[in-house]
Amino acid sequence: MVNTRFPRIIGDIGNANTFSFPVRYIVVKEVTPFNVADQPDRARRTILKPMIESAQELAQEGVNAITTSCGFLALFQKEIANSVDVPVFTSSLMQIPMVNLALGGNRKIGVLTADASSLTKEHLQAVGVDDSISLVIQGLENAPEFSRSIRRNGIDMDVDKVRLEVIERSMKLRESNVGAIVFECSNLPPYAQAVRSATGLPVFDLVSLVNYVHDAVAKSP
């Protein structure tokens, strides 16, 4: 978990009630909303080591799979996965190649991200997204309530305002004729159903990925 103070509402990956199965959290104090989207070289110097140490701690506790709470941590998919013996799913962006295949490989995919300027080619390549996949990237960096509460790590949040901002940015993606939307940001899943209803498009997020992973690794009937 990124070290945050903003509300983690149901649907957010940081709220255990989002899931129908037990989850275990570790907050990585060195990783905050202010440095998690740093440029790749700087992020490697400041974030990678504590992320690996936290993943190893979770693995030692006996979890069946590990995820992070920020899509930008896709940057470290290979390094974290190689540090433990359980599957690691750092980012919802990992779903993009699958969605591309599902759309026939010739339709655009919309990506809604917390900050379009921080989502680099290096982040995408780290999870198997190459130039053959056509993306339309839309950021929330200028959405007033999202920026105030989540990007600037506020202590409260107007959920209705954030929902409207997320829908508005998603409609811009729809206008670009995308075939599906992938949420980079793990704070956006609470609004996925509203976006599906507004756009008529499939929406993939980190919660949908974690539920899929759970079905694959669950050891009890």
Account of the 3D structure:
The protein is globular and about 45 Å long. The chain is an alpha/beta fold and 221 residues long. Helix 7 runs parallel beside helix 8. It folds into 2 domains: 16-91 and 208-217, no CATH class; 92-204, Rossmann fold. It is built from 9 helices and 6 strands. Helix 3 (77-81) links the parallel strand 1 and strand 2.
Comma- or semicolon-separated keywords:
Rossmann fold, 221 residues, 38% helix, four-stranded parallel beta sheet, alpha/beta, two-stranded parallel ribbon, 2 domains
Number of helices: 9
Uncertain regions spanning at least 5 consecutive residues:
none
- Quaternary form: single chain
Structural class by secondary-structure content: alpha/beta
Question: β content, as a range?
Answer: 5-15%
Give me the count of strands: 6
Query: Percentage of helical residues?
Result: 25-40%
Trace the largest sheet across and list its strands.
Answer: 4-3-5-6
Q: Note the overall shape.
A: globular
The first-level CATH class of the largest domain is given as Alpha Beta
Mean pLDDT value: 96
As for the number of domains, it is: 2
What's the Cα radius of gyration?
Answer: 16 Å
CATH topology of the largest domain: Rossmann fold
- From the N-terminal CA to the C-terminal CA, the straight-line distance is 28 Å
Element-level helix/strand string: HHEHEHEHEHHEHEH
How is this fold's topology laid out?
Blueprint: H1 40-46, H2 48-61, E1 66-67, H3 77-81, E2 88-89, H4 96-102, E3 109-113, H5 121-125, E4 135-139, H6 144-151, H7 159-175, E5 180-183, H8 192-199, E6 203-204, H9 206-217
Parallel strand pairs: 1-2, 3-4, 3-5, 5-6
